[in-house]
Design brief:
- The chain has 234 residues and is an alpha/beta fold.
- Helix content is 49%, strand content 15%.
- The protein contains 12 helices and 8 strands.
- The strands form 2 sheets. It has a 6-stranded parallel beta sheet, with helices on both faces.
- α10 links the parallel β6 and β7.
- The longest helix has 14 residues.
Length: 234
């Protein structure tokens, strides 16, 4: 039985908009194409995961962005780090994650219509609820747990406990969906939740021997995994 499902935000519900990022870098005199920014993302996400696994929870966003910008533009590391810091300071007003991931908000709505409690649990900068409202999704989730507001990041078990409290949920009947193996999947499993590792990299790697982890490359595969675990979807 699945009673509660939480979604990560970035790269799960919404993804980086490379066109917007290219435009923002152009404001600082740095040229980048959306195609180059897209191509540089897999390696930057791998660095993000390594940073989180090593305990670097304070600046993983900036580490990711600096690596992405350096790879896509050719600027040196110091310049890329400065640009990442500027982009982070701008996030509350110009959030770069706003491109819907195909099928995921529709799945969230389907779960809610079926009586499942649905929330968002994300490492973000403190303005995620406002971004979801801007996208027209404010009423889709029972709660939005934003690390920038609660003061603790995934995979820290405290943010998973805060989420259960906010949603009135139980770990045994809760599933978290996210793209980061370290922050989302390992964090959820350590908290006693089941987890769906989302994205092409997850599907290519596989879940491993843990029966509490499923992998899904797209929304249809997420839906199938939830049904297999007892979610009340037709």
């Amino acid at each position: 039985m699945i009673a509660t499902v939480t979604f990560d935000a970035g790269q799960t519900l919404i993804e980086l908009d490379p066109t917007m990022l290219a435009a923002r870098l152009a404001e600082r005199g740095v040229a980048a194409t959306p195609a180059a920014l897209t191509a540089a993302q897999p390696a930057a996400w791998e660095l993000y995961d390594r940073t989180v696994r090593a305990g670097g929870h304070a600046r993983p966003w900036q580490v990711f962005m600096a690596a992405l910008v350096a790879a896509a533009t050719g600027v040196d590391a110091a310049h890329a780090d400065a640009l990442a810091g500027w982009l982070w300071s701008e996030q509350p007003r110009h959030n770069l994650w706003r491109q819907p991931v195909p099928g995921m908000i529709e799945l969230a709505r389907e779960l809610a219509d079926a009586g499942v409690t649905v929330g968002v649990l994300s490492n973000s900068e403190g303005q995620l609820a406002e971004l979801l409202a801007e996208l027209g999704w404010a009423d889709e989730f029972s709660a939005v747990i934003d690390s920038g507001r609660v003061g603790v990041d995934k995979p820290d078990p405290r943010i998973f406990a805060l989420t259960l409290d906010a949603l009135g949920a139980d770990a045994a009947t809760t599933v978290h969906i996210g793209d980061s193996r370290s922050a989302d999947i390992d964090g959820a499993r350590a908290a006693g939740w089941r987890a769906i590792w989302f994205g092409a990299a997850a599907a290519a790697t596989g879940a491993g021997p843990d029966a509490g982890i499923a992998v899904a490359a797209d929304a249809a595969a997420v839906r199938a995994a939830l049904i297999a675990w007892g979610a009340p979807l037709a």
